[in-house]
Amino acid sequence: MTPSAEELLAIARLYWGADQAYAFRQEPSPEDLRYEALWEKKNAERPRWGSFVKALREALPSCDAWDYAPGLANPSFCVLVYPHQEQDMMRPQTSWTVAGYLSILAPLYTVHCVRRVFLGKHFMESKVFLGPIPMELQDIADTLARHIEAEYGATVLPLDVAQTPVPLYVNAMKPPETTLFHALFTSEPGNIF
């Protein structure tokens, strides 16, 4: 059962500040200390996550799958899945990434997509699709979701709950833009390559 938005906000408040009182201080905030301690504990699960990513590669032979772990930047483990695509350097190319995040704060996960457009090697634009998943990527997203659920027993966070605004500062996100998605998974869903 998915916790309510109020329950998730109470969890997120343990790890993210409601103000910027510690933004320019040398010492970490109480939230920072709890977040760092949680990550220290969760780092013991990295080998299991690595095995999960390896199993996902086998389940998705038409894709590349990679662990995406930017240290303490995200409150989640993440796997990035890249469907194999033909390239034509003379025309704009669309590149898709399917991202699966497993929160370390609650037994929840999310799957979203990022579309990037390139002309040759020149980046032109990027767009995040938090939901719904584009049809051509649905099988990949479903496979990723099934594997997270089977391996970790996590529940998908519904998009309407994920988009609930929260009065918290999560890395570069500030109220009123901050949502439960940012607090539980990543503050930069499009910043993946």
Question: Mean pLDDT across all residues, rounded?
Answer: 93
The helix content is: 25-40%
Number of strands: 6
Strand content: 15-25%
Distance between the termini: 32 Å
SSE order: HHHEEEEEHEHH
Explain what the structure shows.
The protein is 31% helix and 24% strand. The chain has 193 residues and is of the alpha+beta class. It has one domain (5-184). Strands 1, 2, 3, 4, 5 and 6 form a 6-stranded mixed beta sheet that branches. The protein starts with a helix and ends in a 9-residue tail after the last helix.
Write the layout of secondary structure elements.
Blueprint: H1 5-13, H2 30-42, H3 46-59, E1 63-67, E2 76-83, E3 92-103, E4 108-119, E5 122-129, H4 138-152, E6 155-156, H5 159-162, H6 180-184
Parallel strand pairs: 4-6
Antiparallel strand pairs: 1-2, 2-3, 3-4, 4-5
